[in-house]
Design brief:
Length: 131
């Protein structure tokens, strides 16, 4: 369970650019156990490729993969643990919820709220509430 938690912790991050949300962990003694899912970005971009072909696919186009995912990569899981063992990887409140939706964009962040008709939702305020 704890080994899977490390991989799950690393897999995604918030990024304004969807390509930069999915990790590449280049080397891992756990690769076989994780079915090479440490190359998670490569898996997302080529979901029909068999798990055992991902390492070669990554090696053959390494620079291109790293450029495509905006450098969200770690040389190994130890580097990830070292970087975030004692500090938050990302803010607890999702960054997109800290701002108003942009005019003309379809995404309008909402929160659960009570209204006169019961439980519903309301637009997220631009600033998080003060504690």
């Amino acid at each position: 369970q704890s080994l899977i938690s490390i991989r799950t912790f690393a897999e995604h991050q918030w990024s304004e650019h969807p390509e930069g949300r999915t990790v590449i962990v280049e080397r891992s003694p756990l690769s076989f156990l994780f079915l090479n899912n440490n190359l998670h970005f490569v898996h997302h971009k080529t979901p029909t490729v068999a798990w055992y072909k991902l390492p070669k696919l990554f090696r053959d186009r390494r620079e291109e993969w790293l450029r495509m995912n905006n450098g969200y990569a770690y040389p190994n899981y130890f580097a990830l643990i070292k970087a975030y063992a004692f500090k938050a990887k990302e803010p607890i409140v999702h960054p997109v919820l800290r701002r108003q939706a942009e005019p003309g964009r379809a995404f309008k962040p909402r929160i659960r709220a009570r209204s006169i008709s019961g439980l519903g939702s309301a637009p997220v305020p631009a600033e998080p509430p003060k504690e």
